[in-house]
Amino acid sequence: MAGALLILPGRRPSRARLQGERGPVVQNDGDDRHRREDPLAVAATFDLLAACLRSGLPVAVAAEAVSLTAPAPLSESLRRAADLLSLGADAATAWESAASDPATESLARMARRSARSGSSLAGSMTELATESRSQAADSAAASAERAGVLISGPLGLCFLPAFICLGIIPVVVGLASRVLGGGLL
Length: 185
What we know:
Protein name: Type II secretion system protein GspF domain-containing protein
Radius of gyration: 30 Å
Strand content: under 5%
Distance between the termini: 57 Å
Pfam families: T2SSF (PF00482)
Keywords: Cell membrane, Membrane, Transmembrane, Transmembrane helix
Number of helices: 9
Oligomer: single chain
Number of domains: 1
Domain Type II secretion system protein GspF: 47-165
Subcellular location: Cell membrane
């Protein structure tokens, strides 16, 4: 048993497991294809932006601060808008590039509306965070349902032969031996 634990591939080399070295569980070899985006990162970014705005930071400073931790498309849009707002551009111009990207279109729409009407952008960011969390929950539920459907095929292929061999064939053989052996035919 102990030998099998050393031979089977693991996340750490077998020598490191023998020596008890603690290292990173998953090593990044520069391949980002297996790296998954956090589905709640966008919601957290909107919440952080709302908190910055509620604390009294100007929109440009809050957007610049939040852009450091935001996911990729949102980070770029926030940084660009913050730079333009810092230079004195109006909200329509500053959020124009964000409006063209489908991932940040709702943020740009809310920011433009807030600048035009004078309403609080923090409340809008809280609404966007709630909507983003709802979409992430719906996506997770859909993935779980899809996994349940996809697993039924292999399970059926595994259990159907066993059911036939252990359930149906003995009944048919038993009935056939009674019918043929009992002289009913």
